[in-house]
Structures are given as structure tokens and as C-alpha cells.
């Protein structure tokens, strides 16, 4: 049920004609309250799409009553006119919702906007605005799955999650299959909860969750202009969890979605977990994990079922993390192919026939750990990304 | 004539049996003097191969009378035993040269060693040592081309250069086709000159040259454990150029070799120059150029002949360089597809049918410029690197 699993939310997903093939491409999520608190985390890319600039502004108000999301166009690098398109999208959504629903009298400043698709092209507003009216008419308590489907781009399947609390629930949907990178990338995610929570509590929960999940997914090292993760609370359960409970549930929801993103990364044949242990601190562990996750030579080797630990060591060696090169240990799928920086167990013992790969790197410098998730670099990745816009 | 173009040098390239196919895999370059001054630049990777650790030590002495280079094995991540192998290689080369040549009575500490190939495996010393004797017997004044061929790995052709000074010459050979990265990567390069130059003059010339050439080649963002660039001077011309002349000639030689490396990068179908202009300083310009050069989405788009400037902007946006996102201009092969951060000239005007691509990025933040060279990310790259060690 994705975003409509918690009480107080309706959603819809429809085809507005933004995608050439006629697939669903527009989603609306509405928070019917009683509360409308929210938090958001956005791309760290300095080139930000118009909807990111807009939604950051909306979030500053701390109230989000609706989110409108489109695939079929990122509305990034579109200049002042593109920002005006986002503004019109929010206004139109607010007006359509206010017309349909006496309960909801909302302004554009309470509507977040998310877009995904090709960068640099204006959105076809003549299709988008009628699509918004169609979606608003279709809003329903079980519209979550349709919304999750409408935000897909090169995803092969929708991603959704539901995490139960004690009398309250977190639901969520996400899209994203490439450009997953440091602090995320073209990833859109809307999380909903019927817990009672103020903006500060939501912000704390969402930032903690992203840090441990989406921020540790690095599919291809690229960072999008459009990444957005939103968390909306309706308070409809009447239950106010403590901060630890809230953070744990939001983290579990983000973890579940992040794993689905990695599993569905463009052209991937492997889902790779890089466990870094023995680090001085978590930052070092993430740094090392990310360096390995981004290394094209490691990623192509794994695509070829080759436990090429030398390339892993070379990637570790490019970081500033605390370690001694001659103390590094590396295991691939449980076989310690490298000990003390040199060959150890026979690499032919490594079984890479399955889809899941675990690389374990022991820095022998401390006791902190982190896991970074990535995927392999395959012919499919090259194919999808060399053909995407043409 | 590569490294034997300048007076005072002999070289040889032979098959020692390190490569399974019987191709040449061992080269020796000898400086017959009268001088034996030298400078070296090595990988910045903290995981350094045994020959790098050894040669750094040799260079500290400032005297290099011979270089022995092998393909067919990197001798990286091989522990203390691997370092011992490098030491034995240098000793054996010194002994073989001293036996053959009364003029040359040299110690292992005057022999630099370079290795390239698979990481993590010991070298077959039973083949390498006899190979050294064979190569020393074959040393000749026209052995440069054979040496350049013997150091190839996945290179499809040898790389060599000759740059003429006023009565003196710089010659050089290089290998490297993948793992070209920040401050180079599995790249071996030996430059020779018959100019009269002390170690400090050579060091200054070589560092300046690398900074503008090899350091600005970024093929796949990966950094090798083995990169080595050596510059040897025999003084046999009897002419001592001034520092500017020396630096200019060495830079020209490195530029020529760097261009050959980019053109022969693994699986590449495009040779891409990223010209960054309007930067506050050269560091910013290089930072931006490198970020674009490493971006897999930009590289796959160019493989697909797609002038996807949005991905270029997204790559620029990940840097800390001084610029305003809404002032960025981007041209692809002369067509300004992006002005002020948004679409400008029609992308269909961009002709990407040729092998050479020039991306020009104007940051509008200052007056400094830099060019970074890279290549596209193709099916060939994935193929070569997924099959390399197996």
C-alpha cells in the first residue's frame, strides 16, 4: 500500500502523456491530516532542478499538504521558465485539491513538487496540468501502488515499503535506478506516517535514516540534480512515538527502499554490499566503502565474476582513511583472498555465481564499521545510458 | 626510436615468458652516460607496488644507470616476498650489466624497476631472471622500439615520442590503456635525454610536465598501484639547456605520450577533450574537468553519440569550484547547447560522428583555463575489464 498504508493519506497515479509510451507518469500524494508536518532531504548537487529549489522553499514552512511527482522530465537546467513551470504545477495542484475537497483549502506553498527524467528540457505543461486534475479526481485511500508506478523511469519495478510501529505506521515509495550516488541521486522518495510528530522530530528521523541508508548507496558515483526524500506526517493514529522509535521505523523504511533501488540499478547483474570494518570512525569506513563502490575496475571485474581483490586494494589506497597498506584484509563472499595486503586464500574458492556479493574490508585501524551498497558495471548499464535521451 | 633517440642510451625488449602468449614482456633501458642523473614521479596511491617502493628509494640517490621493466605482472600487493623479488630483479640486472660491460660497474641501487600487469600475484622469477640476461645481451642503440613494445599490456599499439632541442633530444616510451587517473594510473613511462641536467633540473621539468599532461588524463577515475614516470639524462650531447627549454621539451614529450594513451584507452571509441574556461584558478578548472571526465553517465552518453549536456551540468554541480549554476555555458563540438544553465542551441546540431569530441565549459567565474582528457565508456571497456584476470 506504499504511501497510503498509514492513515490520513490518499494517492493517485495516472498517465498524463509526459512519457511517449503512454505509461503512468504523474502521481499525487495528499495528507488529509489532522497534522501536515513534514521534513525533506535534497540533493547536494549545486546544480539543482527547479522542483528541488521549490520544494526546499516549501519545506522551510514546515507544512506539506500534498506532493505532486512526475516522471518523463526532470525540469532541471531549465532556467527561470522552468522554475515558473514548477510554481504553476504547485498552484494548479493546490487549486484542484481545494476545489474537490472542502476539508483542504491549501496554497501552492504547501505543495511539494518532484520531477524525474531527462535534464534540460521544459515540461509539456499542456499535458501536465490536465494530468494533475485527472490525478486529483482519482485520489483514493488505496492509490499508493498506482503512485509508486507512476514515478518510475528506467526502474523495472515499483519500490514500496510499509513498516509497522506500535499503533502507527510508516509507508513509502521510491524510484531510482541509476545516478545513485554520494548522498543519493536521481532518487525520489516519499515517506508517510500517521504518527504524531513535529517537524523537528521528523527532520531528525529522516536525516539519521538517510545517512545510514540512501547516503550509503552508490550505484555509479553520479549525483542527480533532482534527488528528493520527503517524510510527511498526518498524526491520524493519534500516537506520538518517542524519537528513537520514530527514527528506527523511518530508517527501516529507507533501508528497505534503498535495497530495492540497488537491486534494480540500471543494467546490474550483481547486488554488492561492501562491509568495511576495523575503521577509526564511521566516516573513514564510508569513505573506503564508497571508493570501492565507485571503482569501475572493481565493478567490471565483479560483472565478470572475477574476485579481483587487487583492484579492491587499489581503490582503498586512493582514500585518506587511516590504515596501513600491509595490514589490509579483504574477503569476497567469505573467502579471505587477501591478508596483510597480499594474496591469502585461493581466489578460485570464491563463488560469484549468485546475484549477491559481499566484500569485507578490514582496515585494522579501529573498531568502527559501515556498509556501502552498489552494483556491478555491466553491458546493460552502458546500453541503457548510451541510449537514454536519444 | 623512443628512448634510444637521445645519445647515450641503449635498450632492448624481449619475451621472457611472463605473458602466456609469448609476446615481448621485458625491457631494459641503459644509460651509458657520461651522466646518470634522473628524476621520477610515482603513483599517489597509498597501496604501492613493490617496484614503486623500490624505485622511489633508488631515485632518492639521484643516480639511475638502468631501468628494467616487465609486463605480465604488477608485483603489487605481494608483501615482503614481492619486494624481495624486485630487489633480486635490480641486483640481477646490475650484475648482468656489469659482466657485459666494463664501462658499467653498477649496483642494484642504481637500477629502477617498473612492473605492470595483474595485481596480487608473485612474478615468475625463474622466467624473469633469465629474461634479464637475454635482454642485456640484446641491448642496442636502436632497441627503443622493441622496449616500447615489451611494456604493453592491453595497449593495442606501442607509444613513443621524440622531441628535438637545440643539439639535444628527449625520447620516451609509455604504456597504459586503462586505469589512467588522477595523477595517472597504470602507466609506465621512461623518458630519456642527452641534455646535461642535474637531478633538480630534471625533477622540476618532470613535475611541471606531468602536472600539465599525465595528471590531466583521466580515463576511468581509477588510480593504479604501479604508475611510474622516469626521466634519465646521459649528458652525451654536452649541451646544458636552460630550465625553461628543458621543461618545455619534457612537457611536449609527455603531452604527445598522454595523447597516445587517451587515444588507445581500453575499449574507447571517443577521444574527449574537456576545456574548462572562465575558472577562478587552474585548480578549479582541473577539478571541474576531472569531475566531468569521470562521470559514467557523461561517458556513456558520448559513447551513444548523445550530446547530453544536462549530465555535464550535473557533474559540474558536484564540485566545489567557484561558479553560479545559472551562469554555466556548455558547448559540445562547438555548439553551445547550454547557456546560462539552460538549453540554448539545438542539440541536434552537434556532430558526434567523429572520434574526437571537445566539451567546452565556461564557468564565468574568472579567467583561468585547463584541459582534461578522457574517453568514453563503451561496451569494449566493460568487456576488457570484466575478462582481464580470468
Automatic annotation (TrEMBL), chains A, B:
Quaternary structure annotation from Swiss-Prot or TrEMBL: Heterotetramer of two alpha and two beta chains.
Pfam families: ArgJ (PF01960)
Alphabetical list of Gene3D superfamilies matching this protein: ArgJ beta chain, C-terminal domain, L-amino peptidase D-ALA esterase/amidase
Record key words, sorted: Acyltransferase, Amino-acid biosynthesis, Arginine biosynthesis, Autocatalytic cleavage, Cytoplasm, Multifunctional enzyme, Transferase
Residues with site note (Cleavage): 185-186
Originating organism: Micromonospora zhanjiangensis
Record GO terms (molecular function): L-glutamate N-acetyltransferase activity, acting on acetyl-L-ornithine as donor
Biological role stated in the UniProt entry: Catalyzes two activities which are involved in the cyclic version of arginine biosynthesis: the synthesis of N-acetylglutamate from glutamate and acetyl-CoA as the acetyl donor, and of ornithine by transacetylation between N(2)-acetylornithine and glutamate.
Enzyme Commission (EC) number: 2.3.1.35, 2.3.1.1
Pathway(s) it belongs to: Amino-acid biosynthesis; L-arginine biosynthesis; N(2)-acetyl-L-ornithine from L-glutamate: step 1/4; Amino-acid biosynthesis; L-arginine biosynthesis; L-ornithine and N-acetyl-L-glutamate from L-glutamate and N(2)-acetyl-L-ornithine (cyclic): step 1/1
Protein name in UniProt: Arginine biosynthesis bifunctional protein ArgJ
Annotated family: Belongs to the ArgJ family.
Chief location of this protein within or outside the cell: cytoplasm
UniProt-annotated site: Involved in the stabilization of negative charge on the oxyanion by the formation of the oxyanion hole, residues: 116-117
Organism taxonomic ancestry: Bacteria, Bacillati, Actinomycetota, Actinomycetes, Micromonosporales
Catalytic site: 186 (nucleophile)
